[in-house]
């Protein structure tokens, strides 16, 4: 099943030059402005940790027998595009090197991000809760109750949090497809014309 075939259609008109003359062209395309939320019941799933070698199309082929179901992998995990997919170790290194370099031909941005402090944290000894504090309070706090989080560690944590995804079980996969088709079918009755 192709993902966009069930989206409501959007009609628009444009003018293109054909054979040296302007021609009015009518186009009908899937309405890409539709935003899907988790209205489809996921049902039974198991957790999977994305590895560096993994891509949505590869996982779809392994799990569901067809790489064209990569959209199911993405949608069932509330991923809207490939920017929601975690970076590989190499991509992450390159990303950090570029994002945090201070100037061309300066030190590597990875090193700079490891030295830069993202936030200071105080662990409340009574509750065990971590609280974000400023640098002044950090300096006055006993060393066994405080820690620093570097920019590098913060970015790593964000990227690693995207690695845990849901893998729909085979029975749930079929139910997910049926629900998605029904949802998109109810949207296809709506007129989207310009």
How would you portray this structure in words?
By secondary structure, the protein is α+β, with helices and mostly antiparallel strands. The protein has two domains: 3-86 and 162-187, no CATH class; 101-154, no CATH class. Helix content is 35%, strand content 24%. The strands form three sheets. It has a three-stranded antiparallel sheet. α3 (89-99) packs across α4 (109-115). The radius of gyration is 24 Å and the shape is extended. Residues 189-194 have low confidence and may be disordered.
Shape: extended
For the biggest sheet, the summary is:
3 strands, antiparallel
Order of helices and strands: EEEHHHHEEHEHEH
Count of helical stretches: 7
Topology:
Elements: E1 9-18, E2 21-30, E3 45-49, H1 56-64, H2 70-75, H3 89-99, H4 109-115, E4 117-123, E5 130-133, H5 135-140, E6 146-150, H6 151-161, E7 164-168, H7 170-187
Helix pairs in contact: 3-4
Task: Kindly summarize this structure in a few lines.
The protein has seven helices and seven strands.
Tag the structure with descriptive keywords.
2 domains, 3-stranded antiparallel sheet, alpha+beta, 7 strands, 194 residues
């Amino acid at each position: 099943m192709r993902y966009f075939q069930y989206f409501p259609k959007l009609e628009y008109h444009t003018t293109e030059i054909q054979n040296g003359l302007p021609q009015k062209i009518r186009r009908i395309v899937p309405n890409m402005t539709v935003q899907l939320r988790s209205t489809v019941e996921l049902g039974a799933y198991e957790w999977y940790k994305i590895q560096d070698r993994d891509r949505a199309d590869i996982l779809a082929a392994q799990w569901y027998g067809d790489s064209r179901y990569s959209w199911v992998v993405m949608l069932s995990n509330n991923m809207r595009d490939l920017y929601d997919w975690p970076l590989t170790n190499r991509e992450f290194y390159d990303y950090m090197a570029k994002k945090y370099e201070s100037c061309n031909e300066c030190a590597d941005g990875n090193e700079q991000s490891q030295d830069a402090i993202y936030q200071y944290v105080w662990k409340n000894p009574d509750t065990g809760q971590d609280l974000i504090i400023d640098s002044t309070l950090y300096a006055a706090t006993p060393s066994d109750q405080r820690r620093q989080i570097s920019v590098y560690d913060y970015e790593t944590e964000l990227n690693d949090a995207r690695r845990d995804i849901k893998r729909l079980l085979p029975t749930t996969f079929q139910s997910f497809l049926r629900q998605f088709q029904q949802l998109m079918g109810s949207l296809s009755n709506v007129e989207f014309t310009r």
